[in-house]
Structures are given as structure tokens and as C-alpha cells.
Amino acid sequence: RNEFVQKLNKLLFHYTSDKHLSVEYNPNYAKELESDRDDKEEQAEKEKRENYGFENTRILAGNVGYIKLKYFADTSNSKNAAYKALESVRDTKSLILDLGGNSGGSGSMIQLLCSSFIQGGEPLLQIIYKHGDTVTLKTYPDTDRFLYSNPIFIFCDRNTFSAAEAFTLIMKNRERAIIIGDTTAGAGNIAGPHFLTHDFIITIPVGKIVDPLTQKGWEGTGIAPDILTGKP
Fold first, then answer.
1. Which DSSP string corresponds to 118-149?
2. What 3-state class would DSSP assign to 95?
3. CB 160 within 8 A of CB 184
4. Which of 73, 139, 140, 192 has the fewest CB atoms within 10 Å of its CB?
5. If you write DSSP's letter for every residue of 175-191 in order, what string do you get?
6. More confident residue, 73 or 21
7. Range in 36-40, 74-78, 219-223 the model is least confident about
């Protein structure tokens, strides 16, 4: 079954070059999609157990902050965990954000993180849907929360995906972070899951994403680092 899915996705990518177009064997989720039921409580419990993707937060030698983020959880539940991680590194001389292998996720986490590193009201991303609508994500208005102004370094690799790439692109284009590692995955379209069969789901792209600063995205190309290190 896994071999079938791998071969099918390889063919889909061969003909479309879109990493968001994919088939997955997931009977439980297929049943939820078929019945129009999305078990948000189960997902919320899973994310809570994983500290909403904030896998490791610590202070390194020389007062350098380090945050390892596995995915971008929706901030409806993860806001407190995110602010706790950011608060723990607020007095560091510089900050490393480790997005190696980050599988992406929610645009709301992009907004939250960027709002701690970039001035309020800054346009971050434009989501251009195929049906014609365009949505612009911006940093939150300036509040009493601190704005981290010291140097930031973002580590990426070939498996840094989707929303994690969007965040990296934003920070790079605004010269707010130095990107280290390898070119990212190149998954720059917005997509959603659909019922395919009782055992399988399919994720289908529904629009593209660009940085309003450049009107360019990263679909198919990925984001090249400022400092290339290759495989770790």
C-alpha cells in the first residue's frame, strides 16, 4: 500500500510539479471527510501533547536563543505555547529558529511569529484563490507584547515545507533573518484535503501564494539559503 501511494505521488508530481497535489492512505480521515466531520478535538489533543510543534526551546552558550518548530499549528489553541517560547528567548543576543523538516501548517502561526519580529501592520502574504478571491495576511497591530529586534538565523532544509517556507520567505525578503541550510521544498500553493475513497484522501491545490513585497512565490523553486550548508 505504501509503495502504491509513493508511486502514485511520484507520477502526480512528474505531471504537475506540484508538491501539494498528493494522495494519502488515511482511512480514519477519509471517513471524517466523507461524512463532513473533522475531528478537531482529536487534532487539538495531538497538538497539545506535542506542545503545538514547539519541540525544543533553550538558551545556548553565548546567550543565543534556540527554538525548534516541527509544524505551524493554528493559533486558536497554540497561541499561549508560542508566546511562552518567544518570551523565554526575549533577552537573548540572537535567535536561531530551526525549521528543518518543518511540515508547514497554519497561516495564523505565520502572522503570530512575524508579529514578534516585524513592525505591526506589515503585509506578509497574498493568497490568490482560483475562484477569484484574494486574501492578504498582515502582522498584528503593535501591542504591548515585545518586538524581538536582535539578529535572527533560520535553519531550513529540503523538507522545510509550505507555511514554514512562507515564513522563511517573508523574513528573508525583509532582511529580517539570515537563512542557513539548504533550499526548501518548493511547496508554495495553498491546498486542502478531499475524500477520495474509504481508505484514501487527496490534497488538491486551490490557489497560489505570493509575497506582496515582490509579487513572487516559491512554488517549484523553494527558497535558497543565504548560507548553503547542504546536508547536515
1. S-TT-EEEEEEETTS-EEEEEPPPP-SS----
2. strand
3. yes
4. 192
5. T--EEEES------EEE
6. 73
7. 36-40
Q: Which of 177, 232, 10, 200 has the alpha carbon at shortest distance from 223? A: 177
Beta bridge partners of 66: 58, 96
Q: Which of 12, 40, 16 is nearest to 24 (CA)?
A: 12
Q: What DSSP state is assigned to residue 211?
A: B
CA 164 to chain centre: 3
Q: How many residues does the chain have?
A: 232
Residue whose C-alpha cell is 505521488? 9
Q: Which amino acid is at 83?
A: Y
Q: Provide the mean pLDDT of the chain.
A: 90
Strands 178-181 and 227-228: parallel
Given a cut of 90, whether residue 194 has pLDDT beyond it is no
How open is the CA angle 155-96-57, to the nearest 5 degrees? 115
Cell of 195: 475524500
